[in-house]
Amino acid sequence: MGDHDDLRKFIIDLAVVHGRVVLSSGREADWYVDLRRVTLHHRAAPLVGRVLRELTADWEYDAVGGLTLGADPIAVSMLHAAAETDRPLDAFVVRKAGKAHGLQRRIEGPDVAGRRVLAVEDTSTTGGSVLTAVEALREAGAEVTGVAVIVDRGAGDAVRAAGLSYRAAYTLADLGLVA
Q1: Annotated binding residue at 85?
Q2: What is known about its subunit structure (predicted)?
Q3: CA 20 to 30 Å from 50, out of 2, 74, 80, 159?
Q4: Annotation-wise, does 90 bind a ligand?
């Protein structure tokens, strides 16, 4: 099996939780995909970085990140995967709100102004979180190349409607789940 198949197995085995839950979108579901169980796992996290780098290999960007918390381990996994190549990446974190102390930055890490960046998210239903990150990135002067998620729960249309390219490593069908 390759990285893509291996990561799918980790997602199915570790991240898919069955039972009634309320999603961040406010919608209810009979299952939840808790990707932090994968993105923070010692064997799965490196796969996340490699799979998302492969998914977006034809896009031009030199920094990756998104809205904290879901995007943080993805960006770090991609940063580490890139360190092994001739195409290095920086990572950044978009806060939900600017800090009231210190440098009062909303985006932590290397400066994104004037840079091409990739916005990432673990899973997205409405696109709200990643679009919030995109708005902050644009306000900071970044050029957002596109949006990539590990699992798409339906956000693709909303992200594309916002004028952004969108890719997902896995659909719900890939995981044997029904929306």
Answers
A1: no
A2: Homodimer.
A3: 159
A4: no
pLDDT digits (tens, 9 = 90+) for 77-104: 999 999 989 999 999 999 987 655 555 6
Domains in the chain, start-ordered, CATH in brackets?
A: 45-175 (3.40.50.2020)
Residue 88 carries which side chain, given as an amino acid letter?
P
Q: Is 96 annotated as a binding residue?
A: yes
Spatial neighbors of 21 by CB under 8 A, at least 6 apart, are 28, 29, 31, 32
pTM for the whole structure: 0.93
Nearest to 33 by CA among 15, 58, 55: 15
Which residue from 67, 64, 110, 68 is spatially nearest to 89, judged by alpha carbons? 64
Q: What distance in Å separates the CA atoms of residue 128 and residue 159, rounded to the nearest whole number?
A: 9
Confidence (pLDDT) at 104: 66
